[in-house]
Amino acid sequence: MKTVYTCFCTDVIHDGHLNIISNAKKYGEVVIGALSDEALIRYNKFPTISLEERIRLYESLDGVDRVVVQNSMLYDDVIPEIKPDYVVHGDNWANGPESAIRANVVKLLSEYGGELVEVPYTYNENVRKIDQRLKEKLSMPEYRRRRLRDLISMCPIVKTIEAHSGLTGLIAEKTVVENNGKLDQFDAMWVSSLCDSTDRGKPDIELVDMSARLRTINDIMEVTTKPIILDGDTGGLTEHFVYNVRTLERMGVSAVIIEDKTGLKKNSLFGTEVVQTQDSIENFSAKIAAGKKAQLTDDFMIIARIESLILERGMDDALERAGAFVKAGADGIMIHSRRKEPDEIFEFCDKFRETDPETPLVVVPTSFNTVTEEELSKHGVNIVIYANQLMRAAFPAMRQTAEVILKNHRALEADEMLMPFKEIITLIDEL
Ligand code: SPV
Ligand code: MG
User: Fold this and answer.
1) Ligand 1, from 164, 274, 388, 392: best to mutate by most atoms within 8 Å of Cβ?
2) From ligand 2's centre to the CA of 341, what distance in Å?
3) 109, 116 contact by CB (below 8 A)
4) Where are the beta strands (DSSP E) in 38-166?
5) How do strand 261-262 and strand 383-386 relate by DSSP bridges?
6) What pLDDT, in 10s, does the model give residues 215-227?
7) Of 126 and 323, which is predicted with more confidence?
8) CB of 198 sitting under 6 A from ligand 1
């Protein structure tokens, strides 16, 4: 009896999967690979049921002989182990980032004479509806909210990119690259006060109020499924913060990060060039505790951001605050720096981890941008936020285009810098 292998990365079975099984059955014993949670995340197919439930689901299907776990997107762990005579896959992976996985499978099979069988990808109304329904499920508040905590426990580091609109949300949601044969993408989105304000042509001084921020979040949520971390500035008055925690939690936001500043907040990248007042440990701890008391689920996170290094108050102050804020109930600590080198961030993280191995650590490497995700992860960082790069990319491109049109009294010369709208709208889903 020959062995046929196919990998499934789905929580819901549709005609396409049944078609793969019936084709596979023609070649021999059918072994299904259930992709692990970690690997599913890299596919942006965030699991809505557990791996055990997926295994049981696949085992219950007619024609399936055996189910094994496939731990990585590349078939490196399973093919040498099972040595299937055939691997069956839909023919929709020949182009785009997934073609690297295909190439790897072809290479692995060639090592012992296995064969790849590609069946036409099934795309009908039923398949489309099921895909759509799954996506809708992931965008629901209860799934989206929980997803950040799950990611922290599943990923070496949660990669977060700034979004300030539906369109930037779509870029965060859908940008996939192939890197050394593996697919990669962002895990979460950061709704930055700086970019949300700048997008409205306003300064980053808590002028854009919560109603406007909620509108931005809603625009992003309408078209995405990935979890959202909100830059909550100082959190405002404690009496207001508790209401905002409830609202954010109900909407499906996963975390709010509030910074230990008070009075008129200015952006941290100004550091000590502008007057900024740090809140006392007592006041800020009370704000965190009040927020934690107000929340209704175990999923939502209140993360305390420490500005001691930005305001040059020293490492000991930063560490003292971190300990106090965790004690007050903070679900994570964000430590910020505007040094060019990551040294003080590393020092903080190492010292913090000596006494607290658990509480998630968040960093925003805007100034110390040479640091890699791997280095951060080695120093105990759990979430990295690329806080403003999308906006900084868009602004010069828009300004240059405006100048070129003005200089030439027509749009022709600008065209070579522009993406055709047809290509842009491929990002936008149709219902
Ligand atoms: C933001 O993105 O608004 C932030 C991060 O608060 S920073 O601009 O680095 O202060
Ligand atoms: Mg901010």
Assistant:
1) 388
2) 21
3) yes
4) 66-70, 86-90, 115-119, 158-162
5) unpaired
6) 999 999 999 999 9
7) 323
8) no
